[in-house]
Amino acid sequence: MSTRAQGERPSLTAEVRSGTWRSWGGNVSAEPAVTVRPEDSDQVLQVLAEAAAAGLTVRPAGSGHSWSPVVPTEDVLLDTSALSGLVSVDTERQLVTVFAGTTLHELSRLLEEHGLAVANLPDSGHMTVAGAVATGMHGTGLGQPSMAEQVTAMSIATPSGELVSCSETHRPDLLRAARVHLGVLGVVVSVTLQCVSSFRLHCAEFREPLAGLVDGMQERMSGADHFEFSWMPGTSMAHTRILSRLHRLPQDYTRPASPISRALRRADDAVLRTSLTAGLGRVGSLLPRTVNGLNRLESMALSSRRYTDVSYRAFTTARPVRYVCSEYALPLESTADAFRELRDLVDRKGYDLSFPVTVRCSPPDRGLLSPAAGRYTGWIALRQYGRRPHEGFFRAAEEIFAAHGGRPHWGTVHTRTAADLAPQYPGWDEFLALRTELDPQGLLLNAHTRELLGV
Ligand SMILES: Cc1cc2nc3c(=O)[nH]c(=O)nc-3n(C[C@H](O)[C@H](O)[C@H](O)COP(=O)(O)OP(=O)(O)OC[C@H]3O[C@@H](n4cnc5c(N)ncnc54)[C@H](O)[C@@H]3O)c2cc1C
Questions:
Q1: Cα dist. 138→96, 104, 263, 278, 399 in Å?
Q2: Is 63 in the pocket of ligand 1 (CB under 6 A)?
Q3: Of 82, 120, 229, 288, whose Cβ has the fewest other Cβ atoms within 10 Å?
Q4: 129 C-alpha to ligand 1 centroid (Å)
């Protein structure tokens, strides 16, 4: 749609200094002509109208925590960081409305003040609420909903100049589509979430032999509130993480955790589980053939431990080391077979991988384009240190995942396009029809989303 003449520089409402935009992983960047940082829905609508009049496209950006090029634009980058904070709290029904650019960390802290929490979270808290919802972000646990499933209403600024609301009773068709919206239906201004009473989690982490773990994967997933495991390529061991939801106890017992144990855990995270990974990643990038040997060393360093903490602190871990990630959502019953084939591939090809492969699970989602739409899902995430090559491994693994009916996580690296994706989503045509209704001119599309959706 962009009709901007070369070199011409439009001026828009809420414009801020523009520069190179980079994703957290560093693998995606953009040089937008204009960056805007609107502070309310009126300014968002104004920007959309001005961009349309100038023949420019607009891409909203959250925290840039996606590894796929869902954000980049050469036209208008809409920074959502000023659309932040609580809109309203209904403590009785545990319904909370927040501005779309609120990060999950901020959200959790705000909810804690009201005795509330989000039922399930990913392993990082830096992404924004709208960004997380856009790509179908998940945590782990077969009985616990993903972020998009917890959404009960949204308010969306559309290219036609309207602020459209949708909920389970008003425009439920739009809510179904907007649960995983890819940033192509409009600019999300606020999101209402069904929260739960605040809770604590007990976390138990163990080193276990990989073989038995993979054979009993479904049972282990069904037997825990939140279960995941990570396998270090080059080893036959895995690191399991089991989170159990604790009952609410009298005030004396519900201190989040003893400060000493939390301080020790943070030190352990920072020194053993993160700096060691970083250090080994750097050594590995100098001496590639040694990486799997280094993985054996790291795998030994990750010892068993147990601790209790408030839910959002236990769900998330610090991630000071940048990496690139590809993750696939597989039918739960195919996940163990896909993992075995992946392991054979790594052993056969001898890829040097400096980060573990992680396996998680989630229940079916209702979002039309949720990778977990309509089925219990096993997620397999591949990671590689940012400065090391990942393309060959990710591509070969993708063939395995695709053969098992896998759907890519929209925010991670993959090579699927509309032709591969459309047959995998029963709600595909319904989503495309709604997108056309809300944005007939394609104001919100970039090259990547055009390719993904075939428009
Ligand atoms: C360290 C790390 C850990 C991660 N852990 C997990 C995990 O445990 N589980 C998981 O599923 N994923 C995980 N991810 C992936 C991440 O959650 C998703 O890619 C998520 O979409 C990123 O959110 P964001 O706020 O950074 O959005 P961005 O990456 O900035 O944008 C994502 C999409 O949202 C759209 N968007 C953002 N704001 C708006 C808005 N207000 N209105 C309309 N569209 C909008 C953008 O246009 C884009 O299409 C992780 C990523 C990192 C870097």
A1: 19, 13, 27, 25, 23
A2: yes
A3: 288
A4: 8
